[in-house]
Amino acid sequence: MYFQIEKVILWSRKKEFGYKTIDFDLGKVNVITGASRTGKSAIIPIIDYCLGAGSCSIPVKVIRNACNWFGVLVKLDGSQMLLARKEPEGKVTSNDMMFIRGKNIKIPDRPEKNSTRENVILELDEAAKLTFLRMNEQNESGFDARPAFRDMLKLCFQPQNIVANANTLFYKADTMEHRQKLISIFPYILGAVDANILSKRSELHNLQKELKKKERELEKLRAVSEKWDYAIRSWLNVAKEMGLIAPKVSIATLKYSTCVEILSQIAKEDFNSYGITSEGIEDALVELKELKHKERKLSLELSKNTRRKSEMMQFSTNIEEYRKTLAVQRERLNIATWLKELSQENGICPFCGANHVEDEKLNELLENLEEVEREASGVSEIPIAFEREYSFVEGQISLLTKEIRAVQESIRMLDLKCRKNREQAYTLNEIEKFIGKVQYAEETFRSIGTDGELENEIQKMKERIKVLQIEVNEGAIRKRLEVALKRLERMIMYGLTTLDLEDADDPVEFDYKNLTVRVLDRNGRKNYLWEIGSGSNWLSYHMAVSLGIHRFAYGEEYSPIPQFLVYDQPSQVYFPQKLSMKEEEKELDAKLEDEDIEAVRKLFVTMDNAIEKCEGNLQIIVLEHADEEVWDGLENVKKVCEWRGENNALIPKEWIVE
C-alpha cells in the first residue's frame, strides 16, 4: 500500500502563529536529529494519534498545552489525505477529526471538524483494501476479528521503548489484546491467506453450522414421524372404512411418506367419486381388533418392566441398608482389636491391671469381628452391569408408554367411528366433513413426517462443503505460509549482514506465533531473542525484522502495510551510562564515543540499503541524538530537522502557554 508521510502538522493554540509543518521526503530515510527534550519522541505519538489511535499518547504539558490540533498529510497513489485531530483538552482522547482526500490539498489555517475517529478508521481500512471478513469465524473473540489498518501500524512504529526491547518486537505487542490480534492476522499479512480464502472459510463455517442444525432437525423429524405413524394410519383406516381408499390397499405395510401422499390425494379429489364398501368396513374392524391386541401386548410388556424396575429399586435399597448395619457392627467390634493390641504389649489388662496370657472373651469378640469383615467384603458396591440394566429398563418403560399412547389414540379414533350410527356415519355429508379434516391433517402430517426435501438440502450442503474444503485446502495454506516465512527470513538475514551483530551468520527463524525470532547457534540450539544478550544485538534484530517485513511487502503483488517506518532513537543502546543517569543528570545533547560511531553508521547503511531495494516504495523516519557525521555520504539519507540551540525544537518558544 503506497502510504507515506509528507508532513506532520501542528496548529498553535495562539491564533496569531497559525501552524507549523515538518516536511519529509518520500522514498528516503528522513532524519530528525537533536538534543534531548526537544520533542523528537513526540513524532510517533502524533502520527499514531492522527491515524486513529484509541487514546492520545502525545506528551502532556508543553506540547499539548501549546497545540490544539495535530495533523498528518499523507501521500497515496494518485492522491493525498489530510488527517487532523483535536487535542483531547484534558480527556483521554478526542473523536473530533478533520478528514480531506484529494489532490494538491491546501492546509487550512484552522482545522474544522468534519468527521470522527470511527469514520476515519473506515476510510483508512478502505484505502488499504482490507477484507471485512474475520480471520476465524469459529472464534468469536476480538483476537480473530478482521484485519484493520490500525493493526498494520504495529509494523510501522519502533518507539524508544520497543526499538531494542528483548521481549517485544512490535509496537503495542506488549499488551495481550494487540499481541494476539497481530498473531492472528500474520498469515494474512504474509499473503498465505487472502480475501478469497477468508470468504470461502466463512461460507464453509456457516454451512457446517447450518448442516448440524439441519441434521438435528432431520433427526427430530424422523423421531416425530415414528410417533405419528400410528395416528396417520388410523386416519387411513377410517378413510378405508368410508370407501375413500381401495379395499385391497394394505395400510400396515405402507411407508410413512406414502401414507402422507395418500392423504394428500384424498384431500384433493372429489368426495362424490368415493363409495362405502363392506370390505372397507371389515378392514377397519380388523384393524381395530389388531390395535386392541397390540395394546394388551404392550401393556403386559410395560407391566413386566415396571415390576422389574420396582424389584431392582428394592434390591438396591436392601443392599444399602445391610451395608449400613454391617458398618455399625464393625465399629462396635473394633474395640476388641484395640484391646488385643494393648494387652499383647506386656500381657497386662489395660482396665484391671491383671496379667492375662489368653482371654477367651476377647478372642470371641475378635472372631465375631472377622466374620463381620468377611460378610462386608462379600457385599461390594453395586456393579456397573446392574446400573446399565436399570437404565435399560427405564428406557423400555418410556418407549412402551409412548407406543401405548399412540395405539390408544388410534383405537379411540376407530372405536369412535365404529360406535356411531352406521346409517349416519356413511352419509355423503359425513364423508365430506371427514375429507375436510383430512385436508387439515394432511398438511400437519406432511410438515412433521416427510423429510425428503430436508434430506435433499442436507445432501446439497454436504456437496458444497466438500467443494469448499478442497478450495480452502488448509494444507496448501500452511505450505504457502512456510514458503512466505522462508522468504521473509532470507530478507531478515540480508539485513543482519550490515548491522553491529555478534554471529551475524547464525540462521534466523521468524516465529510469528510468538512474535519473536529464534537464532540457531553453532551448538544447534535455537535461542529466542530474550535469551540473547546485549542491547546492540536486540536492536539489530529489531531493525532487520522490521525492514525485512517491509521489503517482503514490497515484493508482494499487493500488501496492506503502509510504506513507512519510524525509528525512535535506535542509537540509544550506545549510550548505556548516559541513559542510566537520573533525568536531571543526563546530558541534553549527548555525544557518541568514537568507537560507537561506526556501529551507529551501520544502522543507517542498513536503512539506506533497504530504501535502495524497495526502489522508493519505503519511507523511513529516524528520530536521533546522533548528528550528521554518522550518515554522511549515504545517498538515500536526508536530514529533515536539526533541533539544537536556542528556540530550535518541535514547539517554538513563542507557542508555549505559561
Automatic annotation (TrEMBL):
<keyword id="KW-0175">Coiled coil</keyword>
<feature type="coiled-coil region">
    <location>
        <begin position="355"/>
        <end position="382"/>
    </location>
</feature>
<dbReference type="Pfam" id="PF12532">
    <property type="entry name" value="DUF3732"/>
</dbReference>
<dbReference type="InterPro" id="IPR022205">
    <property type="entry name" value="DUF3732"/>
</dbReference>
<feature type="coiled-coil region">
    <location>
        <begin position="197"/>
        <end position="227"/>
    </location>
</feature>
<dbReference type="InterPro" id="IPR027417">
    <property type="entry name" value="P-loop_NTPase"/>
</dbReference>
<protein>
    <submittedName>
        <fullName>DUF3732 domain-containing protein</fullName>
    </submittedName>
</protein>
